[in-house]
Amino acid sequence: MLIHQRTLKNEVSLWGRGLHTGKECMITFKPAPDNYGYRFIRTDVEDCPEIPALIDNVVDVCRGTTIECNGVKVHTTEHVLAALYGLQIDNCRIEMNGPEPPVMDGSSQQFAEALLEAGFHEQEEPKNYLVIDESIEYHDQDNGVDIVGLPLDGFRTTVMVDYKNPALGSQHSGLFDLDNEFLKDFAPCRTFCFLSEVEALANLGIIKGGDIDNAVVIVDKTLSSEELDALAEKIGIDPSGLILGDNGILNNRELRFTNEPARHKLLDLLGDLALLGMPIKAQILAARPGHASNVEFVKLLKKYADRNALARQYQHEKKAGVIFDINAIQNILPHRYPFLLIDKIVEFKLDEKIVSIKNVTMNEEFFQGHFPGNPIMPGVLIIEAMAQTGGIMMLNGNDNINDMQVYFMGIDKARFRKPVVPGDTLVIEAVMKSRRRSVCQFDGKAYVRGELVCEASLMATVVKKEK
């Protein structure tokens, strides 16, 4: 895989209609500086606002991925982003004089060819790969969707689809080498839909630019000639040019690959993965993916990336089973002896859950008076250890951690189940319950040898330190 970031040598433009809006649009790809990422610029809107192609800006996933920033949208971004991601371009300014990129032939091929024509320029900054070193899983049981990211020193992805339709059947496809496979094996694969969906999509007003030249329509129902003519009129196509055909595809169109639908799903997945904002080193396995599930999976990747960014910033030495050691904790929290009450962080899911370890020894200062001859860890200090654990979770991977301070606002439902004594190892778990702006609520539980010894509900706020 490439080491350095790259952008374009020259700018290049394409013109066409948007698939869903039906509006004419010219899209221009331009060179961009290091660490710029992908940004859409709406030149038809006053002040030419930028819409960064990032997962936090996704607002709609109905038959495409729509992003929005400050009230300005870009529809159906996935084929453009797939071309950029597949060609391993890191930085690109994407100017558009309309709300949606042109659909072209329903694939990424013409975008990719235009980008190749513009040429590539290697930049000085290294690529910021997200390296996955643990399993990341998304499951949607109701829709039978499973997407899993596995550790791999490289990038490959496999997609399986099963629409239980004779024209398609069960299909799968895999991409194992972006350099050699993307352009010829995946960029040409066109979007598709079922004939039974076309009228409903037209009624929703989301295929105003669709026709038989920019989508593969799978015949999954029989229509009379009158019904076919009515459908053609509904979607603005000349009825004389519309036939059911006999190969399972409207108008007897030929697939470019026998598994073109599965390959197009993989292409869509690449476009949605681009919204992470960084290339990935991982093996991605996806069963029955769609834009909604892709976006949810990328959100999981972003949480993993944010957590790892915090770990890279503060945990300089990688240790098995440890997210943050005591040195990293001291770089994050202001607490010091004798009031730093956690020794390491062993699990951290950003904005969800964090687990710390506190080794309780007879050398703890408080045992001198609590109690002589019967040493017991004060319950209030167990609560404080929970608070420090939750405080790390609340800092949320921000770059300005050193400028922030966590203050606790309330303790509720505190219960002390068993005494904690020297020699015990406290396993402290904090689970986020709600977060509104800077105020958070989380539940804390402390265990010794698997037994619950203390629990409480805590509320806290993150504020800037006073200078």
UniProtKB/TrEMBL annotation:
Residues that coordinate or bind Zn(2+): 79, 264, 268
Lyase keyword on record: yes
GO molecular-function term, one example from the UniProt record: (3R)-hydroxyacyl-[acyl-carrier-protein] dehydratase activity
Localization, UniProt: Cytoplasm
Reactions mediated catalytically: a UDP-3-O-[(3R)-3-hydroxyacyl]-N-acetyl-alpha-D-glucosamine + H2O = a UDP-3-O-[(3R)-3-hydroxyacyl]-alpha-D-glucosamine + acetate; a (3R)-hydroxyacyl-[ACP] = a (2E)-enoyl-[ACP] + H2O
Principal place of residence: cytoplasm
EC number: 4.2.1.59, 3.5.1.108
GO CC terms of this entry: cytoplasm; membrane
GO biological-process terms attached to the record: fatty acid biosynthetic process; lipid A biosynthetic process
Pathway the protein contributes to: Glycolipid biosynthesis; lipid IV(A) biosynthesis; lipid IV(A) from (3R)-3-hydroxytetradecanoyl-[acyl-carrier-protein] and UDP-N-acetyl-alpha-D-glucosamine: step 2/6
Entry cofactors: Zn(2+)
The entry's keywords: Cytoplasm, Hydrolase, Lipid A biosynthesis, Lipid biosynthesis, Lipid metabolism, Lyase, Metal-binding, Zinc
Residues at the active site: 291 (proton donor), 370
InterPro entries xrefs: FabA_FabZ, FabZ, HotDog_dom_sf, Ribosomal_Su5_D2-typ_SF, UDP-acyl_GlcNac_deAcase, UDP-acyl_GlcNac_deAcase_C, UDP-acyl_N-AcGlcN_deAcase_N
One Pfam entry name: LpxC
Family: Belongs to the thioester dehydratase family. FabZ subfamily. Belongs to the LpxC family.
NCBIfam families according to UniProt: fabZ (TIGR01750), PRK00006.1 (NF000582), PRK13188.1 (NF009667)
Its job: Involved in unsaturated fatty acids biosynthesis. Catalyzes the dehydration of short chain beta-hydroxyacyl-ACPs and long chain saturated and unsaturated beta-hydroxyacyl-ACPs. Catalyzes the hydrolysis of UDP-3-O-myristoyl-N-acetylglucosamine to form UDP-3-O-myristoylglucosamine and acetate, the committed step in lipid A biosynthesis.
Annotated protein name in UniProt: Multifunctional fusion protein
Organism whose genome encodes this protein: Prosthecochloris aestuarii (strain DSM 271 / SK 413)
Gene name of the encoded protein: lpxC
